[in-house]
Structures are given as C-alpha cells and as structure tokens.
Amino acid sequence: SLVQSLDVRVLPNTAGCHSVSEAVTTAQMAREVFGTDWIKLEVIGNSDTLQPDVFGLVEAARILASEGFEVFPYTTDDLIVAERLLDAGCKLLMPWCAPIGSARGPQNPEALRSLRGHFPDIPLIVDAGIGRPSHAAAVMELGYDAVLLNTAIAKAGDPVAMAAAFGKAIEAGRGAYCAGLLEPRDMAVPSTPVIGMAAFS
Q: Are 71 and 122 in the same domain?
C-alpha cells in the first residue's frame, strides 16, 4: 500500500531467482500485487558473479512476453543473446557493463558499442556495474538511452548528492552523444587553421 500511495510507475524485479519457474512465478505475483505488466527479468546463473543464465533468461522472457508482460531483461553484452531476447518478444535490452554491485564501470565498451550499432531503434539501458558518474556519462556517450542505478547511490556517503551528480553526468553524456562526438584518431591532426599564415624561409 505504501508503494501504491506514491502514485508512481514501478518496475518489479525477479532478483534472486535462479530458475525459469522461479522468475516466471515471481513476475506473475508482482503483476497481481502492483498491477503492472512491467517486469525486470533476472535469472541468475552464478551466485558469485551474479551473471545471468542467458539460456534460462531467453526461455523465461518468451513465456512472460506471451502472457502480455513488457519484459526488461537483465543480460550480458553478448550480441547473439540480445538477438534471441528480441526474438522472444522483448522490446528493450538491459545489458550489464560489469557484474552487479562491482562499481567497475564499462569493462567492454566495444561490445556495448556493437549492441548500439546493431540495434539503433531498440531502447538500451545499462543495468549493472556502474560505480561513478563518469561511468554513466561514458555509456550515455555510446548512445545508450538510460542507466539503471542502485548500489552506487545507495552506498554513497551522501546518496542525495550522489544521485544529483549522476543526473548531471547522464545529461552530459546524452548531450555529448546527440551533439556528435569526435572519433579517436591514430595520429595528430592540427586544430589551428594554417590558411593565411605567414610563410618563413
């Protein structure tokens, strides 16, 4: 009743589920309690790394999508898994950039860039591994649509101030992407015009 009194759209989560049946049952219960078809789908494959069980994830996503859920799948940055999730009925993807709660930031920027390039019209949200506002800015500069945060803010010395810092970083990263970022080069390129400069002999 407390959550319902806030009058906000909630995103229930199947965190802690290690099997397809657990995840599907949890999602069904969440829909009944919160009255929403949204579900962040997690099927954990390893208790130490909290890495998704991508095979179970795809299976659970297919079941839930067929039942009318809008599935937000927590997945890896693997391109083939992403394709399977979309084929299963997911309309967006939530790849990690590092293991949950690790605060290590983007470990494989090229894989994240590849996902953005292959799925230009699919909403992409980085879901795990971000520890600093600069990490959030970095993934937003890759063209991602959003980041999902918890530990980096909840464990900060001043969570409110940290949330504000993340907000600014996310806006900056998105603004930079939309403005058109300069791509890295292999050699120096002069930034000062040489036309009209005096020639000395």
A: no
Are 104 and 179 members of one domain?
Answer: yes
Task: Give per-residue pLDDT as tens, 93-113.
Answer: 999 998 888 889 999 999 999
Task: Specify whether 57 is located in the same domain as 141.
Answer: no
Q: Which of 40, 91, 155, 168 is catalytic?
A: 40
**Predicted confidence (pLDDT) at residue 7 exceeds the cutoff of 90:** no
Number of domains in the chain: 2
Q: Distance between CA 112 and CA 114 in Å, rounded?
A: 5
Tens of pLDDT along 122-173?
999 999 999 999 999 999 999 999 999 999 999 999 999 999 999 999 999 9
List % helix, strand, coil for the chain (3-state, nearest 5). 40, 10, 45
Q: DSSP character for 52?
A: B
Q: What is the pTM of this model?
A: 0.86
Q: Could you confirm whether 155 is annotated as catalytic?
A: no
Phi and psi based region of residue 105 (left: phi greater than 0; alpha: psi -120 to 50; beta: remaining)? left
What tokens appear for 186 in the block?
């292999």
Which 3-state string (H, E, C) describes 114-130?
HHHHHCCCCCEEECCCC
